[in-house]
Amino acid sequence: MFLRQAGQAVATVIVAGPAAASAPSPLDDAMQYDDQKKVGFAIVGLGKFATQQMMPAFKDCKHARIAALVSGSPDKAKKLARQYGVEAKNIYNYENFDTIKDNPEVDVVYIVLPVGLHAEYTIRATKAGKHVLTEKPMATSPEDCQKMIDACQKAGKKLMVAYRAQYEPFNLDAIARIRKGELGKLLQITADHGRSVDPTGDKADSWRVQKKLAGGGSLMDIGIYSLNATRYLTGEEPVEVTAIESTDKNDPRFQEVEDRIHFTLRFPSGVLATCTSSYSIQEVKRYRVFGDKAWLDLDPATDYKEHNLKIGDKNGERKPNVDEGNQFAAELDHMAECVLNNTTPKTPGEEGLRDIRLIHAIYDTRTGKRVKV
Questions:
Q1: What is the mean pLDDT of residues 2-16?
Q2: pLDDT category, 11, cuts 50, 70, 90?
Q3: Which SS3 state, helix, strand or coil, does residue 230 take?
Q4: Which end of the chain offers a freer environment for a tag, N or C, measured as fewer CB atoms within 10 Å?
Q5: What is the mean pLDDT of residues 30-41?
Q6: Contacts of 182 by beta carbon, 8 Å cutoff, 6+ apart
Q7: What topology does CATH give the domain 2-164+328-347?
Q8: Which distant-in-sequence residues (6+ apart) come within 8 Å of 342 by Cβ?
Q9: CB of 119 closer than 8 Å to CB of 148
Q10: Is residue 130 annotated as a catalytic residue, yes or no?
Q11: Helix (H) or strand (E) holding 276
């Protein structure tokens, strides 16, 4: 089982000094392709997200393909291998994973494991000579994020964090409108992400309430969408954070991790972002951006499909026509393009490190104190 071990969470570190990475930017569509061969991906972890959302997207990829599978469940791996045309020799488990170094069909290792295992498998993948795409959040601590970055740099391999919203057409449309000034001067952002976690009824949720594997609760898992969105929407890095937490410790789900966190970010331009995350409310994935000329609302903003974008001003509301596309295919193809063209990913390891530093700063402020970042 992939839950057999995980790195210890490192003590909280307050964010200090300059930003670790520049604010995220939209995906550049004007890519130049040097090689039309498809880049081979090894999928590490065959849970619900991997099998139901991400793997089906490969059919829409121009430059990426599934080359290998890594799982602690042989039967599941064999079944999926047949479904996706993966040869039996390209099925691995967590014990023999390191032998993937001898497989020239695998260019990229895509880590879809609990957060506490991201650093271990990133480092093992780089030692095997493979590029790395890892799910978000990048790791449980800033220290582990840095170890991942260092390992990839030492090996000369790409490291990308799977911030799928930054490859999703509705979010890209929102960013473009803000950059063009359609909202006027940005003033404030509200962002809410939450759902009801069910560790006993949903196996996929069982590790999310274990701090060693998850690194934290709702903030690490889904609040990070709100946090990252404020950064790519403003194009800035926050300079101050404050937060308040409310968790019912009588709820067996929250013996190790937090439930609800309300946090506020202040940006250099004066923009204030008010965000919430929760593991006990019905599903919400939305944000609203306010300017002095207009507002923009995306609800849902970070779902797998069926996004709903609205723009309003003194003349009323309107719904722009945006092609839904396939955010997963766009993300996978971008990683493949970076490998083919030897370019830096739009969401590199430094991007993930910055979010984890901010998350740890938010955890430090959940008593209500302010922390300069």
A1: 32
A2: very low
A3: helix
A4: N
A5: 61
A6: 291, 293, 294, 296, 311
A7: Rossmann fold (3.40.50)
A8: none
A9: yes
A10: no
A11: strand 272-278
Catalytic residue among 163, 225, 279, 287: 225
CATH architecture of 166-325+359-372: 2-Layer Sandwich (3.30)
Q: Which residue matches tokens 């003590």?
A: 11
What is the predicted pLDDT for the residue at 15?
39
pTM value is: 0.89
Q: What is the pLDDT, as a whole number, of residue 195?
A: 97
Distance CA 24, CA 260 (A): 26
Tokens found for residue 107? 């260019």
CA nearest neighbour of 286 among 196, 216, 225: 225
Count of Cβ atoms closer than 10 Å to residue 357 Cβ: 22
Residue 16 pLDDT class (50, 70, 90 cuts): very low
Q: Provide CATH 3.40.50.720 ranges for the chain.
A: 2-164+328-347
Pairing of strands 91-92, 64-70: parallel
- Which ranges in the chain are annotated with CATH 3.30.360.10? 166-325+359-372
| Environment class of 59 (CB within 10 Å of its CB; exposed 0-12, middle 13-18, buried 19+) | exposed
Spatial distance between the Cα atoms of 38 and 277, rounded to a whole number of angstroms: 38
286: amino acid identity, one letter? R
Question: What is the mean pLDDT of the segment spanning 159-183?
Answer: 99
Region 309-335 average pLDDT:
98
Catalytic residue among 136, 158, 211, 346: 136
Q: What percent of the chain has pLDDT over 90?
A: 87
- Checking if the pLDDT of 35 tops 60, the result is no
Place of tokens 């793997």: 55
* Tokens 């790409």 found at: 158
Active site residue 157: no
Dihedral in degrees, nearest 10, Cα atoms 339, 341, 342, 345: -70
Give the pLDDT score at 215. Answer: 98
Chain length of the chain: 373
